[in-house]
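Q: I'm writing up a methods section and want to include an example of the input and output format. Could you take the sequence below and give the corresponding predicted structure tokens, formatted cleanly so I can copy it straight into the document?
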Amino acid sequence: MEMTTRMIMLQNIEKMVKEQDRVDEEDSYIRQDNEDLKYLEGRYEQLQLPHTVKRVIDDYIACMQTRDERYSDLSYAAGVRDTINLLKGLGMLKDTVAATTGIL
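A: Here is the clean output for your methods example:
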């Protein structure tokens, strides 16, 4: 059975999620940040703030998160591109392989 682009993308997403789960469990800094987030989220929920104020705070946090996620995605893509260019420069990767992946 030939793998479609959609199937390949889904496999890559699954791998990325598994890797994120592994990092969440194994990296002590991220583990601590996750614990801090749970604690702070509980404290935030207990604040006696009007709904409109919490909505602004929630929107602000969501905006920062989506910006950071986009920055991470762009950084990852730049790393992949730089790796391909390095391998091509070393003669270890032919232009046709890189061109068919659509990365460059």
